[in-house]
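Study the following:
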Amino acid sequence: MQSGEGGFGPYSRDRTHTAPSNQRFDHYLRAQNPDWGVRDIADIETLGREQGLSLQSVIDMPVNNFSIILERMPADRA
């Protein structure tokens, strides 16, 4: 298995927040800077693919967070 990348935190799914607290956090971040905010898992998958990474798993974590695991794709699939 090749090395992977990952992220942990609140994410939305299908453009829907998974908890009211994540929605409040998203609004708070965007009030600080419109470029900030809770990201959607599909967007992370798209950005990863653009960098040669493939979404391997999304793991539910405590307090409405997720761990997202991306793995470097073989050169012939990138």
Q: What stands out?
A: Strands lie at 4-9, 11-12, 39-40, 53-61, 65-72. The mean pLDDT is 91.
